[in-house]
């Protein structure tokens, strides 16, 4: 099976010094790959290059064998979830989840929002103010918002890092089950090996995808 995503011989510099070099990574359809590494190892930089918000200093990013290295982030059709939920405070839960699908018919948008809130365990939360949400609930809304436009790849950058252990483990299991149910491929970045084992179909430590120049 040809990979959906391919990171091909990417190099990432930091202040003119190579941070990572010779990065190769494939993500197949319906697969969740977890990148694990210590803080500062470059795992989030890899994710930003894939997202299109950072340009690699060398190498290519491909989707279905098409080079997307120069394609702007908003045209890649990838979903993003960060450690901070980054919800819009002036919108209720439904407004946040439906933000990326404002161009579809209202009835279809409402149906999609309801479907996703049910999937993330927040059925009936449509009219809730985001300021009233717990940390775990806010991350579930952020996940639903990222999934609403049906992204062809979901990117999660330490999404549970600010949560306590019990909640982190519960959300990690829920996200794994949700991605499998939706057949959405994903890359999940974390420094926590236990979280990686809960979420991933395949785990890649940063040492496996990096080759520091000598």
Describe what is shown at a glance.
The chain is of the alpha/beta class and 214 residues long. It has 7 helices and 9 strands. The protein has a domain at 88-151.
What labels would you give this structure?
disordered C terminus, 33% helix, 7 helices, 214 residues, five-stranded parallel beta sheet, globular, four-stranded antiparallel beta sheet, alpha/beta
Describe the structure.
This protein has 214 residues and is an alpha/beta fold. It has a domain at 88-151. It has seven helices and nine strands; from the N terminus they run βββαβββαααβαβαβα. The strands form two sheets. Strands 6-7-8-3-9 form a five-stranded parallel beta sheet, with helices on both faces. Strands 2-1-4-5 form a four-stranded antiparallel beta sheet, covered by helices on one side.
What order do the helices and strands come in, and which of them pair?
Elements: E1 5-14, E2 17-27, E3 32-36, H1 43-51, E4 58-63, E5 66-67, E6 78-81, H2 93-97, H3 106-119, H4 135-147, E7 153-157, H5 165-182, E8 186-190, H6 193-199, E9 202-205, H7 206-209
Parallel strand pairs: 3-8, 3-9, 6-7, 7-8
Antiparallel strand pairs: 1-2, 1-4, 4-5
Sheet of most strands: 5 strands, parallel
Distinct helical segment count: 7
Helix content: 25-40%
| Global structural class | alpha/beta
Averaging pLDDT over every residue, what do you get? 91
Question: Got a strand count?
Answer: 9
How large, in whole angstroms, is the Cα Rg? 17 Å
């Amino acid at each position: 099976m040809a990979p959906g995503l391919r990171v091909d011989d990417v190099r990432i510099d930091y202040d003119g010094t190579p941070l990572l070099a010779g990065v190769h990574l494939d993500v197949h359809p319906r697969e969740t790959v977890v990148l694990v590494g210590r803080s500062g190892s470059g795992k989030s930089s890899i994710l930003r290059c894939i997202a299109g918000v950072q340009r690699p200093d060398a190498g290519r990013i491909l989707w279905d064998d098409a080079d997307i290295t120069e394609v702007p982030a908003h045209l890649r059709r990838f979903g993003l979830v960060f450690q901070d939920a980054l919800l819009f405070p002036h919108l209720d839960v439904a407004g946040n989840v439906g933000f990326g699908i404002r161009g579809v018919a209202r009835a279809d948008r409402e149906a999609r929002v309801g479907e996703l809130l049910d999937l993330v365990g927040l059925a009936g939360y449509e009219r809730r103010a985001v300021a009233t949400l717990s940390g775990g609930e806010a991350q579930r809304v952020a996940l639903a918002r990222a999934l609403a436009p049906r992204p062809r790849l979901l990117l999660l950058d330490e999404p549970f890092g600010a949560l306590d252990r019990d909640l982190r483990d519960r959300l990690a299991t829920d996200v794994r089950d949700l991605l499998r149910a939706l057949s959405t491929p994903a890359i999940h970045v974390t420094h926590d090996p236990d979280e990686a084992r809960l979420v991933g179909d395949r785990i890649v430590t940063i040492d496996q995808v990096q080759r520091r120049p000598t």
